[in-house]
Amino acid sequence: MEANQEKLRAFIGQRPVVVLGCGNGRKLAFLAPPRSKSITLVDLSERLIREAERNLGFKVKAMNADFESMDFSVFDPGTAFVMLGGTLGNLGDIRSFLGKIREVPSSRLVLGLEFLEKNGPDEISPILREYDNETGFGFVFGPLASLGVRRQDGEIQVSFNRSESRVEEHFVFSDARALERLANLAGVEADKVRRMLLSSSLKTTFPEFCAILESGKMELVDSFGKRASRICLVERSPNQ
Ligand SMILES: C[S@@+](CC[C@H](N)C(=O)[O-])C[C@H]1O[C@@H](n2cnc3c(N)ncnc32)[C@H](O)[C@@H]1O
User: Fold this and answer.
1) Which amino acid residue places its CA nearest to atom 18 of ligand 1?
2) pLDDT digit string (tens) for 121-133?
3) Mean pLDDT of the chain
4) Ligand 1 pocket by Cβ (under 6 Å)
5) Cα separations (Å) of 194 from 61, 143, 161, 173, 180?
6) 150-160 tens-digit pLDDT
7) Angstrom distance (rounded) from CA 16 to CA 120
8) Which domains does the chain have, with CATH numbers?
9) Which atom of ligand 1 sits closest to the CA of residue 66?
10) Residue 154's beta-bridge partner residues?
11) How far does residue 33's CA lie from ligand 1's centre (Å)?
């Protein structure tokens, strides 16, 4: 572990660190309390940012923001972006995220992810069953509920998107009036929101993950940990 921590610390060095989806910060504190003088915590939850600040025990900047829509040009060249605990799986579009990281000159990316062995149906079916429960549905449905949509206005479907290697939860409207109301609210055509992506979660094998990185013109520099759970050090591909 010590050797791996050293690799991680060497990869980050003195770079400014931006922790995307910091959660309570415990993993960061355990894995690699960075030596950087500039650490920025980003999370949708202000409460978690406060917890992370307490757990890290040193001075950090905090941004209560959505990393999917935020402007990455505010970050310094050379920034090391850190996303631990499978947070990458929260992104709807991983390639566009990798594109934003690439636009920050000389930046680096540290990802903590869990991998499957082979992504076959025997591995995917139990995972899909885990997602198919009312507690989880309540959580992912929250944003739609806050827009006045009711659960009985449609159905939540859980599926595995093989080309993107991710579990997806969609809400499919069956109530035409509820659909029309939401479409008007959002200012879009009803067909665009008839089947809405509520959440996505990356479930992939290590080789497929490397292929996703490659298609985003990024490259795996090193990775360590157990096969199922790894820290991946990622950089912009040379010559791209
Ligand atoms: C799976 S948890 C991991 C937390 C932490 N990185 C860890 O390893 O313990 C994902 C975290 O990302 C945050 N998050 C999810 N989507 C986000 C988004 N679009 N923008 C900012 N934070 C987000 C959640 O609030 C949560 O704290």
Assistant:
1) 66
2) 999 999 999 999 9
3) 91
4) 21-23, 27, 42-45, 48, 66-68, 84-87, 90
5) 40, 16, 18, 5, 9
6) 999 999 999 99
7) 39
8) 2-115+204-236 (3.40.50.150), 121-202 (no CATH)
9) 20
10) 173
11) 18
